[in-house]
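Subgroup meeting minutes
Present: P.N., E.W., G.H.
Scribe: E.W.

1. P.N. recapped why we're keeping a running log of single-chain structure predictions: easier to compare across weeks, and new members can see raw inputs and outputs side by side.
2. G.H. added today's entry (385 aa).
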Amino acid sequence: MILKAIKYRLYPTKLQAELLDKHIGACRFVYNLALETKQIAWASAKVNLSCFDLHKQLPELKKECGWLADINAQSLQSAISNMDSAYTNFFKGKSKFPVFKSKKTSTKSFVIPQKLELCSNLIKFPKFREGIKAVVHRKLEGKIKSSTVSKTPTGKYFISVLFETTEDLPVKPGVTEGNTTGVDLGIKIFATLSDGQTVKNPRHLKKSSSRLKYTQSKYSKYKGKRTKQKLARLHEKITNRRNDFLHKVTKKLIGDNQAIALETLNVDGMMKNHKLAQAIQDVSWGKFNEFLNYKAEWYGVNILRIGQFEPSSKMCHCGVVNKELTLSDREWVCKSCGSVNDRDLLAAQNIKKFALRNHVSRTETENHDELPTLVGVMTREAALQ
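Output recorded in log:
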């Protein structure tokens, strides 16, 4: 079974848009109220209210707030469930403590569990049985798990449908030196491959920076709705271009290779460098890894990773490590063998070498543990020979 998601653009009428906004606001209201109720119960009586306890309070809440009757009950329950999951994940150390959702800054969305119908140009779900106009560009082939309706800062509506297919994940091939490619991610050159290929960084944010600064200064001066919309559209255009670029790069990498080796990057630590923060944000390594990981699972490609402290760009092919190398040095000459090393290409080749070494070591350890120990007959060392 494979979980996949498809995103469709919605084109609601004026009345439908108002009801969608009402759903978004109601789910935010219920989320915040459930979080507040949970916190008060614990602070006053040391009682940890469960998700079920909070769900039971919904009928009474609907009587107090009559306008909630127009909202899909399952969407309200999902808002409470999401809050409870965030609360639980915090105590498991998986996320930060949940905060109250703001009308201005929070993501505007609500969840529709399962009940969804796709027609040729309409999408139907509870409270919208007449259907909302949409461009159904791809058919769903599988069981719908859930759907999320969202509204962008530019006022566009989308629905993301999560569904489960009947197909199984493909079997990943064995990792060899011949079918593995090392990838070094950078800022000026987005990606350098171990075979010498490079992918240039399109620098979407930098290309739009002058227009962005002008619009931002205008918004700060006038704070008009039209200026705010222009700023939102400009940010949306930058994001769409960046995502399109990342999808194309990851698709080609997955299609051309059976195993891809990468370095684990400390992006949060790098963002503390104020001189590089904007460039690192623009290059979006985190989203690149996210796209690459799920596509690798879908198409049966191995992803190998090395530690962030490996000397990938500092170790020459002869094995000597240049400890004096700085970030500004793009080429360096090895004092031992005299070879001239391109920093990015060397890093990509070393990433491949380190990843293969780690993979072989891990495989040997796993095989070693699986061998039976026959006391008095054969030792583990003899069995491995």
